Amino acid sequence: MNIKLTTKVFGAIAAAFLLSTTSNAATCGKITIADMNWASASFMAHVDKAILEGMGCEVELVAGSTMPTWTSMNEKGEPDVAPELWVNTVGADLLDSAVAAGRMYIGNAAPVEGLGEGWWITPYTQDANPELTTVEAVIARPDLFPDKEDPSKGFFMGCPAGWGCQLSSQSLFKAHGMAEKGWILGDPGTSAGLNGSIAKASEQGENWFGYYWSPTTFLAKYDLRPVDLGPFAGTENWDCVILGADNCADPQPSGWTVSRVNTMLSENFSYHGPTEANAYFAARVYPFSVLNSILVWSDENQATGSDSATHFLANHGDTWKAWVDADVAAEVEAAL
């Protein structure tokens, strides 16, 4: 064997590989992703990081939450990616105006299946009473959800003070005449109080009825069942509903307004990022059952967003490999 020749050949191959990798990173550039402060969004951010790094991008995660991330993207064009932006919180008109002006772009209009807000009951409650699928049916049975202080009344768990859902739930409580039908509207005080009420009821086998949203760890862990609130009664009615019972004189029963959640991309990334990255975001849709299983695993293992992303990439290749080309999938797997 000609050792000098072999060394030169391997050196040339290594140099070519390094040049290719460097070129890919240079083409992609540095990408910033919002690592938002709830479990599903942080998990998604770390998955995006791993996938983009598999494309040769240099990726930095930056701390974020809905309003600060939205404001920064709108005014400064950064971060480049917000994996799970709840549009209803931002305001659909504001976001749509920013998109129309070209300040940001919708990378995926529905990155998660089965998400939304509404009223839910514990699964064993519905299993024992299969007719409890609609809000009318549940409201007709206050005896199944007795208030601790006044068992003659049914107890509905509302939202913490300061949350938009508190006002909406107040209005819908009023719209359905629940007080007159023997119900009390409860206030959990805090997010922890809301979660605690679900955990306590579930662990003690007690019936629970109240507000929650998806995707969330608690909803997945305790398998809460949605209550059909009926058809959406129109924007004009909902604009009144969100004002709260004290400021909405005549709210009508209604299904919850559709929850818009988008993956948002900065103008710079949408125009100058690699085509395959834009294609990835457009294809990246998490099945409801898969995301719920990840959130439960994360909670049970006290996992970080990074831990959860690694678990997902290692165990759900049938889901994520459909979002990327085979060569990118191979790079991601090699990095694991």
Q: What's the short version?
A:
It comes from marine metagenome. With 336 residues, the chain is α/β, with parallel strands linked by helices.
Quickly count the domains.
Answer: 2
Distance linking N and C termini: 36 Å
Tell me the overall shape: globular
CATH architecture of the largest domain: 3-Layer(aba) Sandwich
Can you summarize the main beta sheet? 3 strands, antiparallel
What value does the average pLDDT take?
91
Helix content range of the residues, please? Answer: 40-55%
Helix tally equals 17
Q: What name does CATH use for the topology of the largest domain?
A: D-Maltodextrin-Binding Protein, domain 2
Instruction: List low-pLDDT spans.
Output: 1-26
Strand content: 15-25%
Indicate the CATH class of the largest domain: Alpha Beta
**Order of helices and strands, N to C?**
HEHEHEHHEEHHEHEHEHEHEHHHHHH
Task: Give a verbal description of the structure.
By secondary structure, this protein is of the alpha/beta class. The protein folds into two domains: 169 residues, 3-Layer(aba) Sandwich (D-Maltodextrin-Binding Protein, domain 2), CATH 3.40.190; 126 residues, 3-Layer(aba) Sandwich (D-Maltodextrin-Binding Protein, domain 2), CATH 3.40.190.100. It is 50% helix and 16% strand. It has 17 helices and ten strands. Strand 1, helix 2 and strand 2 form a beta-alpha-beta unit. Helix 2 crosses helix 17. The N terminus is likely disordered.
